[in-house]
Amino acid sequence: MSVMVARKKVVRKWEKLPGRNTFCCDGRIMMARQKGIFYLTLFLILGTCALFFAFECRYLAVQLSPAIPVFAAVLFLFAMATLLRTSFSDPGVIPRALPDEAAFIEMEIEATNGTVPQGQRPPPRIKNFQINNQIVKLKYCYTCKIFRPPRASHCSICDNCVERFDHHCPWVGNCVGKRNYRYFYLFILSLSLLTIYIFTFNIVYVALKSLKIGFLNTLKETPGTYPFTSLTVLTVLEVLICFFTLWSVVGLTGFHTFLVALNQTTNEDIKGSWTGKNRVQNPYSHGNIVKNCCEVLCGPLPPSVLDRRGILQQEESTAQEGPCPRGHSTQEPPASQGPQQAEESSMKQQDGSIPLPSAVPVPPLSDAEMPEEKQRTPGEVPLPSPDAGRAEH
Question: Are residues 81 and 205 in the same domain?
């Protein structure tokens, strides 16, 4: 007989989160689904640094100083750590409203705006919020069913509302927001220093080799362990990668340094939120570059509100084969019961109740059938039972 057994299947919250994100390591790593350019970033950084450490660093450490590869290794490790921290973290995604919360917000909006006649456009869903004596508008997100907090915006690529949304960066494969902006800034800053460092010492390497064996001989030089690869070709390749990277990465670092000094985001700068026709002042700026930098880069990091690794328990029923349980009617009477008790126990109903005694008379037991303590010896006169006198009276 099959028996239905309810088992609890453990489901993590990240498995049920909406939006277009990829989760790895049981929800510990969170990225966007479009990660192709992120892999290109890893290839360019790892490839350029590997060539530099394999060829130029050995020569420069002997000719100039052993501190050159050490400092390059520190910059490389710091850039990789901040890149992975930016790419694998929650940028500050705001959870979507639950169905009950969304219905309550909709009722609130309808009560405020009233019924809109057909054919007319409903008024914009906006709430006014005051920050530092400045009115800030909170916009309603039709996807997440919430009024977005100040400086939050909905990312169309990840399909999530992100707190203090800066921009979606395909080079790091994630959104840049409140929880990972400082790591993004430190990444581009360290990558700029690393690019300048490698570019400079590549030129120094070519110059030192040219002074010893001449520039033409340096171009023709091929290391013995790599017979099919010209050392100069690799060096020129590194120089070209660093040269073109300088224009983008160093320029991006300068732009974000300007934004940090003003306590402003890329999204606000593109939209002209504080530099438009109204000339509205930025309510988040402290009016001091040092204070703005300390708030953006050194302030407390807020915890994630997603609870990605929280547990959702779902019950699922599974059928198992097992023996059929026996009822009371099939149980044998215990050995300690007498014949009458055994007969009564066999007459029990399935619901556990004992039926009324039958009107059929039961024949008296003979002396042989009586228990030992009730059997009479020959010539013994039976004594009246104590209940007999009570019955007469």
Answer: yes
